[in-house]
Design a protein that fits this description.
168 residues, mainly alpha, 57% helix, elongated
Length: 168
């Protein structure tokens, strides 16, 4: 974590989250995250947000794939494919912001615990859960319009594979 000196409220920003915000083409909407003391598992609001992001990824992946297939068949426009790719990348940015916020809270919670707790079965399960959330979703660039290749998506599966709580 790095300290954001530009604000007087002392908010700590996860380095990967900061990079994602800087690289984003649009301002990302803040994802509400509960204080780290409650980060023992995903809250109902967190699970709802995760499901919404999964739905958004599925929708944008499907639309992008359909537009790409139409373009390959000669009945679609490359601009539409590019626009849908942009939409897809915005959803990926939102998903990464969510992941970074959860993982940052997990790290904060872990750092507040005793060495004895960290060595316990519950602590080890928590650390394993935290490690599973230490991911960043990325996507490949669109292929050149003249190339014939299949588009592959992994963002939805990556998000779906993140567990809601530690397994004890």
């Amino acid at each position: 974590m790095i300290q954001d000196d530009s604000k007087s409220n002392g908010i700590q920003i996860h380095p990967r989250k900061e990079r994602a915000q800087q690289a984003s083409r649009i301002p990302l909407t803040p994802v509400p995250v509960l204080p780290s003391k409650t980060r023992l598992k995903l809250t109902a609001a967190d699970r709802e947000r995760k499901m919404q992001l999964e739905d958004d990824l599925l929708e944008t992946e499907s639309a992008l794939l359909e537009a790409y297939e139409e373009f390959r068949a000669g009945s679609g426009e490359w601009r539409k494919v590019q626009r849908l790719d942009h939409d897809y990348r915005q959803v990926i940015d939102a998903a990464n912001e969510f992941i970074f916020a959860i993982h940052g809270d997990q790290q904060d919670h872990c750092s507040e615990q005793s060495k004895k707790w960290l060595e316990s079965e519950k602590g080890q399960a928590y650390v394993q859960w935290m490690d599973e959330w230490d991911v960043e979703i990325s996507s490949d660039e669109l292929p050149d319009p003249g190339l014939v290749c299949d588009l592959e998506f992994n963002a939805l599966k990556m998000l779906q594979d993140l567990p809601d709580e530690p397994s004890v």
